[in-house]
Amino acid sequence: MRIKPQSADVYLKYKCPKCDAIHLAQREETVFPGGVLCCCGYKLRFAPVKSIKLSLDYGVVAQTLDKAAIAATQVLRGQGFDKAEIDMMMKMSDSKLNPQLRNNVEYRVKACLQQFAEPTS
């Protein structure tokens, strides 16, 4: 029997206007009155998010992780990244991977970390 999700965690992505650092926050974190301090010292104040609506599509998904991706995920997990951050980094870096280095764990980890550090448009 296949089960459906009970709930979902959504991370909102913010970019610091001073240093372009990326910050992930859950909806609940947007209501902190004091804001969040960026690594550059800039105080980020998020506009409060009242609600988020998701729609789920239960189509067939044929996605399997290769051994290098699994190992890279474990390395990133050990560095303190959570599943949502790792999934985002893997997804963003996947299309930019050099096919000849795709099975190299160190290359996959570096590619993910570069995606996490680069500002997005």
Keyphrases for this structure?
single chain; 121 residues; alpha+beta; two-stranded antiparallel sheet; two-stranded antiparallel ribbon; 4 strands; 31% helix; 12% strand; flat
Write a structural description:
This protein has 121 residues and is an alpha+beta fold. It folds into two domains: 50 residues, no CATH class; 51 residues. Helix content is 31%, strand content 12%. It contains three helices and four strands; from the N terminus they run E-E-E-E-H-H-H. The protein has a two-stranded antiparallel sheet. Strands 3-4 form a two-stranded antiparallel sheet. Strand 3 and strand 4 form a beta hairpin. Helix 2 packs across helix 3. The longest helix has 13 residues. It is flat, with a radius of gyration of 17 Å. The mean pLDDT is 81.
Element layout with pairings:
Elements: E1 11-15, E2 22-26, E3 36-37, E4 43-44, H1 67-78, H2 83-94, H3 105-117
Antiparallel strand pairs: 1-2, 3-4
Helix pairs in contact: 1-3, 2-3
Task: Describe this structure in a few short sentences.
The chain is an alpha+beta fold.
